[in-house]
Design brief:
By secondary structure, this protein is an all-alpha fold. The chain has helices at about 5-20, 20-45, 45-50, 55-90, 95-100, 105-155. α1 (about 5-20) runs parallel beside α6 (about 105-155) and α4 packs antiparallel against α6.
Length: about 160
């Protein structure tokens, strides 16, 4: 029965690591886009208008990835809720489990639920990571687009 608390601790440590710093990467990408837009508005309003034509595409792509991430996070939270319920139930009945020598069966049940939670967590982290990377790449393509437009404006100016 000593294995149950250590397994619980290991699974929750893995899940908390999965949350990581994805929100920071998302904020960083949006900050890059907003800063570029502000600089464009400050230096040349005409250039800013050309750059603003890229924004609707970014909004659609970001909306798609946000919905994908929301669904993945929702399934992860649902799996975490199930895991929490099973954990509470098992810890509440620990004396009963030990008295009927059901430790191994209980650990198997917990392992199954924890594995499902881990899969949902890994899927959510994978989607969030991909979303963060794609948004950063999309933000950088926005800057490339703006620089290209700027070079065209400089040639005709």
């Amino acid at each position: 029965m000593e294995a149950l608390p250590s397994k619980i601790s290991d699974y929750f440590a893995s899940i908390s690591q999965g949350l990581g710093e994805k929100l920071g990467q998302l904020i960083y990408a949006f900050t890059l886009v907003i800063t570029g837009l502000f600089l464009a508005l400050f230096t040349s309003p005409i250039l800013a208008l050309a750059c603003l034509s890229y924004i609707p595409v970014m909004v659609v792509v970001n909306g798609f990835f946000a919905k994908l991430s929301k669904n993945a996070q929702g399934s992860k939270m649902q799996a975490l809720g199930v895991l929490g319920g099973v954990t509470e139930e098992l810890l509440g009945a620990i004396k009963l489990i030990v008295s009927f020598a059901q430790e191994e069966e209980t650990v198997k049940i917990y392992d199954k639920v924890a594995e499902e939670t881990m899969k949902a967590s890994k899927r959510a982290v994978f989607i969030s990571s991909g979303m963060g990377g794609f948004i950063m790449a999309f933000g950088l393509s926005f800057f490339i687009y703006c620089l290209t437009i700027a070079s065209v404006f400089m040639q005709f100016d």
